[in-house]
Amino acid sequence: MAAPKSLQEHDSYGNVSYAIISSNPNALQTCPGPSSKKHGPDQPDISGAALKSQHTKMGKPEDTERKKKLKDVEISVPIVYGNAAFWLGKKASEYQSHKWTVYVRGATNEDLSVVVKRVVFQLHSSFNNPTRVVESAPFELSESGWGEFEIAITLYFHNDVCEKPLNLYHHLKLYPEDESGPMSIKKPVVVEFYNEIVFTEPSESFLARVQNYPAVTFPRLPAGFTLPSSAPIEDESKRKRGDTKDHPLNQWFLNFSEADELLQLAAARQQVQAHIAKLRRQISVIDGQNQQFKSSSDQ
Amino acid sequence: MDAKDILGLPKTPLPITQEKKPRPQKDSQRKPDGISREVYALTGGLAPLMPSIDASQLKRRPPSDEKITWQWLPFTSSARKDDLQLYHWVRVVNGVPPTGDYSFAKYNKSVDVIKYTDEEYEKYLTDPVWTKEETDQLFDLCERFDLRFIVIADRFPTFRTVEELKDRYYSVSRAILIARAPSPGEVAGHPLVKEPYNVSQETERKRALSMVLSQTKQQERKDAEVLAEAKRIAESRMAAQGAEEPDLPVTSDIGPESVERAIGHGDTISPSSVQVPSAAVAPSTSIMADNASTLASLRMLRVYLRTYALEQMVQAASSSAGLRTIKRVEQTLQDLEVNLKPKVPTKAVCAEHLELRKEILTLLNLQKQLQYKEAEGSSFRDGSYGDMPGTPKRSHRVVDQDRTFVPDAISFGGERAGKREQKRKGPGRVSETPSSPAHKRPRKMKALDL
């Protein structure tokens, strides 16, 4: 409790006692899941270990050298995830009214498999084998059904990227926003979300491996830092398959441009800043007046 | 009866039966034995569900076999040192007056004030600040007044503060105790020996207590805010610098002291001028601390989504704001046509978004401040019963011009010309304005006029 010292409980010798949260001395955990929003007591241990020593925590002794972490460097992978749903029209039955595909793709349609090892889509329990695992890019899953439900998408990364998986949640959308409008067989209902996967403190091997892949937003490395040259890029044909540039759904993919949003934010900030300046001026005026009052009404 | 006459209806038939009916009813209604009718009527004329007192007990109380008289007899009290005889009414049973001491004598407790000899004084109790005479006087007063130091302080011939007197008394008693004890171990359990009186601490404590007591409502609120933020700073420091545990006690020690200094500062200088710097300093340090801890925790995650990071940072930035303020921020964002959650959350976009939110928070705080200041200004104006319609109207007009997306609260600020306006304030007024005594005076006078 941060109370003024003299008002606080003190024992007979006037000593003040504070409760200090002790960190969990148990075994270190790596990457607690992003869905947990608590700063658990085991955090300080991990930071201590990461800050103080460069030792690996990943239990692969032969890669100790390569696993050195870089602080304040982050790698981000822009992704888009969502679904496209086609109404089946005449062929629709009561339980199979739509054919839909849920997917995770690179934001610029690049191949994500440089970073993502596999993706697991967890469907509604009414589906057969609701846990669908996709081992290779493009990471997508097609199904037919009638209902909208939440799909849990879990991304598993390669070992040198991150050991912990990342969870996304997507609410499957089959029906168009405008309920009264006609449903078309040709035009799908598409809902997509842009997001970026951020990897903190990437290992050198990770950095080295991905440095030439467009799917990854490569960070600026600290000065004087050199990476070992990466492994040769896999042959063209193999890489081509994983990206979504020629994907059949490509024409429906949404474009996400940060420029518009940036412009809007900048304009808003300007407005707010101008208003703040005005208020500050007003406040100083009134302060002056109040000072006059105070000095004139001295008691 | 009259109504029936008017209506022309026949009176009820069989007047004879009428007489008979109410009487047995009344008899059965009059249940009580031993309680008078009026008293019984207090219960509503019905018997209680649970008999609270057995009605038969009420009259039977005076025992018939004993003869009780009351006599005006003299008595003495063991609590008195003289032989004063006073008189009082005594309940005499069968001619035998009660025996025993005066019943209140047992409450005559007094404190055992230590008596020291002159020798002992010379040996143990000399003090540069206190003369023997003063110390003797002190102890005499202590005995007379049973250690009521406030009274003693009033009666002490030379001026001494209560804390000084206490200090002298307790240290003398303690020294004597220790000196007289055959071995130090025996007295070690005595409360005086275990916990000596600490003058500086007591002075400090009383000063702080009086400060707290004399705070205005605004200051109380400010202090609560500052304390909460200090707590948060301490906690976030612990989170961010978890590895450097030895430093923790130091930082948390510094925390409350600087908080106290801030509070003390706020008292000596006028509240309004301090509000701005302390309000500015406290939130910024706490926000920086929050940011640092959020960044640290994000780094811990090793992998996260940009949107998640933004959520955390937004939460950290608005941690000092209440739910209402957060809603206002969101409303402002909507008015500015900005998505509450960015559609394209890239690093740059998220950073801009966060900055925008922080700026909106600043904006809202400034608006609140402006309101406070204007309220203060008006209270000053009314306190001197002078009208200065020019100035408030001017600021009001300036505010009006900015009415692009300003939330409603700002409109409350301006209208305060003249005393009559005050009556209309009522419930519609934004509750944050402090109601100084100056406001209340004119209202009261108006009430009396009625």
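Residues 74-222+241-262 of chain A form a domain with the Immunoglobulin-like fold (CATH 2.60.40.1970).
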